[in-house]
Amino acid sequence: MTAAEDSVPGSGRSMSRTEARTKALEVLFAADLRGVPAGTLLDDPEGGWVDEFTRTLVTTVADNRYDIDQLIGERAEGWTLDRMPGVDRNVLRLGLAELLYIDEVPPAVAIDEAVELAKSLSTDSSPRFVNGILAAVARDRDLL
């Protein structure tokens, strides 16, 4: 197992950090759609297995959601959170959680991973939108 993977002891399961981010996005998006706290979906048997990094991502977003949403709202010119596509909104939440609260993830990696999620799961204009907001926050906080 590489440093970029996590596992469940004794289970033989492992998940790359990229896979964990995708799973975290699925949990955040589902919680957003259902109008329930994201943490309640982490142990939902229908949602499948989640690793420790996925849990960390989801709980970090949940614990800091107000501040994260404030930052998104301040920088999303012409967009309110409610009008944003749900995938973009949650990719931004995930990216900001990593960027601001998870020290083990370098800022450039947090931004790049969020942009890649937007590329694979959202609209053609989403990667630039996500990159712009995350890069602006990183510059404002002297993280890049």
Automatic annotation (TrEMBL):
The keyword Transcription regulation applies. One of its GO terms (molecular function) is RNA binding. One of its GO terms (biological process) is DNA-templated transcription termination. Gene3D superfamilies: NusB-like. Keywords: RNA-binding, Transcription, Transcription antitermination, Transcription regulation. InterPro entries: NusB-like_sf, NusB_fam, NusB_RsmB_TIM44. Residues 19-139 form the NusB/RsmB/TIM44 domain. GO terms for cellular component: cytosol. Belongs to the NusB family. Involved in transcription antitermination. Required for transcription of ribosomal RNA (rRNA) genes. Binds specifically to the boxA antiterminator sequence of the ribosomal RNA (rrn) operons. This is Transcription antitermination protein NusB. It comes from Euzebya pacifica. The gene is nusB.
